[in-house]
Amino acid sequence: MMWFNEAINDITAWLSNEVMWKNLALTALRILIILIAARIVIFIVHKAITHAIIERESKRLAIQTRRMRTVGKLLKNVSSYVVHFITILLVFSEFNIHLGPLLAGAGVIGLAIGFGAQSLVKDVITGFFIILEDQFAVGDVVQTGAFKGTVEMIGLRSTRLQSWTGEVHIIPNGMINEVTNFSINNSLAVVDISIAYEEDIDEAEQVIRQTVAKVEDENLVRQPEVLGIQMLGASEVVLRVIAECRPNAQHGYTRKLRSEIKKALDAHNIEIPYPKQVQLHRSEKDGGGVKSGA
Question: Which one, 31, 34, 53, 208, has least CB within 10 Å?
């Protein structure tokens, strides 16, 4: 039973070691401070994210509020994971666990995953920044590369566009390098009208100016403006009219404007140039002379 008595003595000596208990108390205190500090950091970061999301929601349409809240939840989760990871490392360091091998192992695993799924990682990172930076939203009309259409869905991996002819394009986010958004600012409708050289240009401008002032449209932001002569062509004088419309709504208004201007010019007998053909034929009575006709 000697070994038993020695074990009891060792345990008693260890439990009565004041230095050990002092170090253990200090370690526990430092761990408690680390945990409390981690909770405070998470609270502050979440409050900052919530404040930023609320400000962005006030500047976006109501249909995009859900997406902004999703971004907020994603950012909160990411920040919580980062803080918790750092907290675990600090707690391990309090137990004299060497962090070098752990970090090295995690780095090797992350590197292997990155090499094995480069395209997926690129798609996810690009999708995250598309959502975070609010580059475009669901319902916007955008063009990226050869694809143009209305955004139906924005995901972390891919974006779905529907063209005006009905085709649906699913584009990996990693392939989205440049984006043109047609739904942010007002658009400009540009209408060029050709008038024959024989007509009175001043009268034509007056008729067009009176006509465009009467054309009403819900997408019109500012009254149309007749700029005047845009170009002197080979057989026509080109007059230009511009009008500011709502985003991506200029096409419908342009068609309506052309229709009304054509009707007004016809009503005032102002000719729009069209191709004319002149035929030359020989007259037998004139001894083979040339006679012209239109």
Answer: 31
What domains can be seen in the chain, in order of their start residue? 2-116 (1.10.287.1260), 135-181 (2.30.30.60), 187-267 (3.30.70.100)
Instruction: Kindly tell me if the per-residue pLDDT of 197 is higher than 80.
Output: yes
Pairing assessment for the beta strands 279-283 and 225-232 based on DSSP bridges: unpaired
Distance CA 180, CA 159 (A): 14
pLDDT higher for 69 or 257? Answer: 257
Tell me the C-alpha to C-alpha distance, in Å, between residue 252 and each of 142, 147, 223, 272: 18, 21, 16, 22
On the CB side of 262, how many CA atoms lie within 13 Å of its CA? 8
Q: What are phi and psi of 287, to 5 degrees?
A: 70, 40
Residue that has been written with the tokens 């054309």 in this structure: 215
Q: Look at residue 49 in the predicted model and tell me its pLDDT.
A: 81
Burial of 275 (0-12, 13-18, 19+ CB in 10 A): exposed
- % of the chain at pLDDT higher than 70: 76
pLDDT tops 70 at residue 155: yes
Residues 6+ apart with CB under 8 A from 209: 226
pTM over 0.85: no
How would DSSP label each residue in 36-67? HHHHHHHHHHHHHHHHHHHHHHHHS-GGGHHH
